[in-house]
Amino acid sequence: MNHQIDISKELERLISQRRVNDALDLIDNASATLGAVPELRSATSRLRESYELMTHYALQGMPDPARPELYAGIIADIRALADDLHRRSRLDDAPTLYFNTLRYQNMRPDISIATLLDEYRRVNRRLQMAMLTEDVEKAGREFSMRAEDLEKRIFNLIWITYPLTVDDAAAIGNLLSDISLAGHFKQLCVSALMLGQLEYPDEKRMRLLMDAYLSDNAEISVRALCSMLIIMSVRRNRPFSPALARRFDSLREDSRWSADVKMALLQFIRARDTERIGRKLTDEVIPEMMKLQPELEKLGRKPLDPESIEENPEWAELLDKSGISDKLKELQEIQEDGGDVMMVTFSKLKTFPFFNDISNWFLPFHTSHSSIAGSNDASVRMLADIMESAPMFCNSDKYSIILSLAQVPESQKQMMSSQLKAHSAQMAAMSFGDIDSSQKGRERLAGKYVQDIYRFFRLFRRKGEFNDPFATTLNLVTVPLLSDIFDDADTLLLVGEFYFKHKHFADAFDVFERLSDKVPPSAQLYQKMGYCMQMLGAIDTAVRYYEQSELLNAESLWTIKRLAICHRNSRNWEKAVEYYSRLAAANPDDANVALNLALCHLENGQTAEAMQLLYKVEFLQGESDRSSRPLVRCALLENNLDKARRYSDALLSRTPSASDYMHAGHIEILSGNLDNGVRLYAEAIAADNFDTGNFVRTFKSDMETYKAMSAIDSLTLGLILDEAIKRSSALGHKV
Is residue 612 assigned to a domain? Predict the structure, then answer.
C-alpha cells in the first residue's frame, strides 16, 4: 500500500527561499518511497543539469537576459513534478471517484482521447445516416445512446488524464474547433478540462481553455472564461510558467476580456449568496407561509393558490401583517438581480440516477438527449422544447424537471407547460434585442453556467471528494494575474458596492481599501469601510474609520449613530453618552435615542440623568418593559424602594424575565421581606433554566452595584442564597 505523498508546503517553503537544490532533493527523497520511478529520476536529473549550468554562468558574471525566464521555467517544472509525485502516491488505493476512474482507465492503455474521439465521430456519422432508414426511431435511439456513452467516457478521460500529451491536446483542440460536432459535446469537454485542472494543474489544459475562450461560439467561450477564472482564483498563488504567461498576455489583448472578467466576478458573488437565499426561504418564508395557510384558506374557502394571493385584498393584508410580504418582495428583488432562488427547490431533485454520472452535471440541456427524445410521452417532449429556450433555469435544473415528469399527472404537466410558456415569453420580452454574442447574452450564459458548477460542488453525491471553489471567496480582485483589470477607481467602486450590497463585508472592505488609495478622502467611503469592520466585529477599527468620516462630514447623523453604537458595544460609556447626546439633540422626540442615552448614562454612573430620560421615554411611548427595567435599576441605586416596587410589580404582571425576578427579590430583601425575597430568587433561577452558577454570579455582582445590600450580614446572605437554590429545585420538580 502506498501512502499519500504531499510535499507541497515544504516545497513552497524551499522555493520561496530560492533553495532549488534542496527542493530537487526533496522530490528525489520522496519519490524513493514509491520505489524506482525512472520518469521522476530522469526529470529531476535534467532540471539539476539546467540549474547547475545556469548557476555556473551566473557566477562567472556572464550576462543572460533570458536567465529570469529560465529560472521561472525550472520552478514551474519542479512544482509539476511534485504534483506528479502526489498523484502517483495515491494511484493504487485512493478511494475517490477520480482515482477509481483512473484505475479503470489504466486497465485499457490502448484507449486514448484521440481514439475515443474517432469512434465518437463514426457513431455520429452513423446516427445521421440512421435518420434515413425505415425505422428511424429505433436506429436513432440506438446510436444516440452509444454517442451519449462515448461523451461520458471522453469527459472522464479528459478529466483524469495527467499530464495531457501533445497528441491529447491536439485531439481536444481539434474537437473544440470541429464544426461538425454538437455544441453541447464541446461545452461538456470544456467543463472536463476545468475539473481536471482543479485536480492537478497542467499547462496544456490552460492553453486549451484559453483557446476555447477565443471561440466564436458564445457558449464555449463563456464556459472557458468561467472555468479559467475559477482555476486562477483557486491557484492564485501558483504563477504561470513563462510560456503560459506569454499566452495569457496575448489573451488579455482580446477586446472582450476585461468586461468579461468583471461580468464573471459578479456571477461568482451572486453564487456565494445562494446559501443565504436558501436559508431565508427554508427558515423564514416557507415556515411562515405554512403557519398562515389555514387562515388564508379560511378566507378563500379553498386550497391556497400562491398565484392568486394578490387578487384577494384580505390575503394581502394578512401577509403584510405577518411580515411575509416584505420577505417575498426581497426574494423577488434578489431574483431580478440574478440571485439563485431555485437552488432550494431543485436540490431535492438531484437524486435521479442521471446525476450519478459526473458529466451530466455539466451537460448542456438539449432535446436530442435520450431522456427526452426517447420518451414516449409527447408532453415531456413538448415541455422540453419550451425549456430549451427558457432563460430562468440552469441546465442541471432543466434535466431535473424533465426527469421528475414521470411522477407528475397529465393535468399538472399541461399546467406546467402553460406557465413555462408565459414565463419564458415574459423573460424573452424583458431581454428583447439581446443576442448570444452580446455582453448581456454572455452574462446570462455565465450566470447559468456558474449555477451548474455551484450545484455540482454542493449537491453531487460524492461532493466531499472535490475541493469546492465556492468554499473560498472566489474574489478575483485579489488574483495577481487579474489585478490590472481591477485597478481603476470606477471598477473598484462597482465591485466594492456589489460586495457591500450582498453583505460580503470582508471582501467589500478589501476593495474599498484599495479604492481609498486611488480617490480623494470621502466621508461616504469611510462610512462603508467602518460599517464593514463593524459587521465583522472589529469595533475599534470601525470607530477609526467612522471618525475619519466624521472629520469630513461632522453633521452626518448616520455616522454619529454608528459611533454611538460602537462606543456602547465596546463599553466606552463616556463616548457613547457624547454621541447619543448629539443624536438626541437632533431628534428630541425619538424615544429609542432617548432610551439608549439613558442606558449609557446609567452604565456611566449618572443615575439622575438616566432617570429623567426614562421618564421622557415613558411620556413619548407609554410605560413598557424597555423603560420599566432600567427605572427599577435607577430606583434601587437611589434606594427608593417604593418607586422600584411600583415598576417591578408592573414587570412581574407582564412577562417577567430572570432579571425581573432577581430585582424584585432585591427589593423584598432590602424591605425586610426575606422569605418573599427568597421566593422571587427561586423564580429567577427557574426562569434562567435553573442555572444556579449564573444566579450566584449575578447576585454577587448586584451586591457591588446596589450598595444598600452590603448592610445585610454575610451569614444571612448565605442562608438566603442556599434556600433560594433549594426552592428552585422544587420548582424544577413541578415542571
Answer: no
Give the structural domain span for 670: 655-735
Q: How many whole angstroms from its chain centre is CA 442?
A: 22
Q: For residue 206, which of 167, 151, 244, 249 has the smallest C-alpha distance?
A: 244
pLDDT-based confidence at 144, cuts 50/70/90?
confident
Same domain flag for 75 and 103? no
* Cβ–Cβ under 8 Å, residues 598 and 632: no
Q: What is the pLDDT of residue 131?
A: 64
Q: Which pLDDT score is estimated for 126?
A: 83
Question: Domain check: are 102 and 76 in the same one?
Answer: no
Packed helices 625-637 and 641-652: angle between N→C axes, nearest 10 degrees: 150
The answer to whether 452 and 470 are in contact (CB under 8 A) is: no
Is the separation of the CB atoms in 732 and 686 below 8 Å?
yes
Question: What value does the mean pLDDT of the chain take?
Answer: 88
Report the predicted TM-score, pTM, of the whole model to 2 decimal places.
0.83
Among 398, 399, 358, 400, CA closest to 192: 358
**DSSP string over 187-256:** HHHHHHHHHHHHHS--HHHHHHHHHHHT-S-HHHHHHHHHHHHHHHHHTTTSPPPHHHHHHHHHHTTSTT
Residue pair 286/345 in contact by the 8 Å Cβ criterion: no
What would the mean pLDDT of 262-278 be, rounded to a whole number?
A: 89
Burial class (CB in 10 A: 0-12, 13-18, 19+), 327: middle
**In the chain, what's the furthest Cα-to-Cα distance?**
107
State pLDDT tens for residues 24-49: 999 999 998 887 578 899 999 999 99
Measured at the CA of 201, the angle between CA 68 and CA 105, to 5 degrees, comes to 140
Query: How far, CA to CA in Å, does 394 sit from each of 219, 350, 387, 612?
Result: 13, 13, 10, 61
Domain count, the chain: 4
Which three cell numbers mark 217? Answer: 461560439
Q: In the listed set 255, 283, 313, which residue is the last one of a domain according to the structure? A: 255
Q: Which of 139-148, 173-182, 564-573 has the lowest mean pLDDT?
A: 139-148
**CB of 108 within 8 A of CB of 92?**
no
Same domain, 89 and 103: no
Number of residues written out for the chain:
735
- Domain match, 294 and 188 both: no
Looking at the structure, do residues 663 and 687 belong to the same domain, yes or no? yes
Same-domain pairing of 17 and 112: no
Domain shared by 228 and 303, yes or no: no
Residue 694 domain flag: yes
Strongest mean pLDDT among 122-126, 345-349, 477-481:
477-481
Confidence of residue 437 (pLDDT cuts 50, 70, 90): very low
Would 3 be classed as within a structural domain?
no
DSSP string of 325-394?
A: HHHHHHHHHHHHTT---SHHHHGGG--SGGGGSGGGGGPPP-TTSHHHHT-S-HHHHHHHHHHHT-TTS-
Q: How far apart are CA 247 and CA 245, in angstroms?
A: 5
* pLDDT tops 50 at residue 434: no
Give the whole-angstrom CA distance, residue 694 versus residue 692.
5
Distance CA 424, CA 332 (A): 17
Band (301; pLDDT cuts 50, 70, 90): very low
| Most confidently modeled range among 208-222, 293-307, 364-378, 720-734 | 208-222
Alpha carbon of 127 to those of 136, 141, 364, 538, 554: distances in Å?
10, 9, 20, 64, 75
**pLDDT mean over 455-482:** 93
Domain boundary among 188, 222, 255: 255
Judgement on whether residues 112 and 219 belong to the same structural domain of the protein: yes
DSSP-based three-state secondary structure for 494: helix
Residue 560 lies in a domain: no
Can you tell me which residue has the cell 435553573? 690
